[in-house]
Amino acid sequence: MLRLLAALLALLGLAAPLTAQDGGRLIEYERVPVAGLPDQRLTIWLPPGYDVYQHRYPVLYMHDGHNLFDVAKSNFNKIWAADEAMLEAVTNRNIEPHIIIGIWAPGADRYRQYLPRSAYDAATGGLRAQMDQTANGEIVSDRYLAWIAGPLKSWVDSSFRTRPGRDDTAIVGSSMGGLMSCYAFLERPEVFGRAGCVSSHWPAVDPRSVEGESAELKALWDAWFAARLGQPDGRRVWLDHGTATLDAYYAPYQQVIDARFAAAGWQKGRDWESRVYPGAEHEENAWAARLPEIFSWLLAKD
């Protein structure tokens, strides 16, 4: 009888709203060695009920993991509150709870780990020189992506109760992490079925070094997406930006990318979304404010 009751509760738990009393559980892994990369660090959030029920969960990978959950560990005393955003989206019955894999940024190596290698390889002249100067070292985002899509994902899928398929695997980041999320989505479409590219840093370098809009950057991103976008095939991507601080530089590039999605036959509102948040700045509080909306659209089941 006890086993039957537990089974019934587990089934009910699949559809029951999450309670505010149970905020999930965090696990942290420090100094994860990865060949060819700085040591990595993980903070993993397991949804409420993970330790009670036996069903499997979709997985969300997020960059800048130190800024996701705990203010005490954040860079700027601000966080995305990704766990709270997930709970809000689930409570509103828009999405299933996801395991969140927060991958910390490697300090001074963040830029060279997040700048898409294929975009860097396509850059020339002064733009390429500025990228090299900002990186102060080899661009290693190709290794980072190979690690996430390969060894890290394999470990996550074998260590936790996940649903490992493409449609149950998402990746989200902001700023340079937004570029990295688009990079993962485009280069590994068999792995990542969802991507959130939040306040993506399309200038790629200090935008103040570019007088007005850069035709070279527009052409670079247009060609980069055109060569890799393909057909939606059930995939989904979110793009957005604010209009203040660094985000004030992004609109001209985002418009070019939006046009590329439309030209490739992706249907806005179904396959991709692009939003502008007037007055929103380039910082964690702004991203936290819209993260429930991002999750509700990006991670919703068709």
Please estimate the helix content.
25-40%
CATH architecture: 3-Layer(aba) Sandwich
Anisotropy-based shape = globular
Task: Give the end-to-end Cα distance, rounded to a whole number of Å.
Answer: 37 Å
Strand % is: 15-25%
CATH topology assignment: Rossmann fold
Q: With helices defined by DSSP (H or I, 4 residues minimum), what is the helix count?
A: 10
Q: How does this structure look, described?
A:
The chain is 39% helix and 16% strand. The chain has 302 residues and is α/β, with parallel strands linked by helices. It has a single domain, classed as 3-Layer(aba) Sandwich (Rossmann fold), CATH 3.40.50.1820. An 8-stranded mixed sheet has the order 1-2-4-3-5-6-7-8, with helices on both faces. α8 (215-228) packs parallel to α9 (251-263). The longest helix is centred in the middle third of the chain and has 19 residues, at 141-159. The two termini are 37 Å apart. 38% of the residues are buried.
Short summary:
With 302 residues, the protein is an alpha/beta fold. The longest helix is centred in the middle third of the chain and has 19 residues.
Secondary structure: elements and pairs:
Layout: H1 2-15, E1 25-32, E2 40-46, E3 59-63, H2 82-91, E4 99-103, H3 110-114, H4 117-122, H5 125-135, H6 141-159, E5 169-174, H7 176-187, E6 194-198, H8 215-228, E7 236-242, H9 251-263, E8 272-277, H10 284-298
Helix pairs in contact: 2-10, 8-9
Labels describing this entry:
alpha/beta
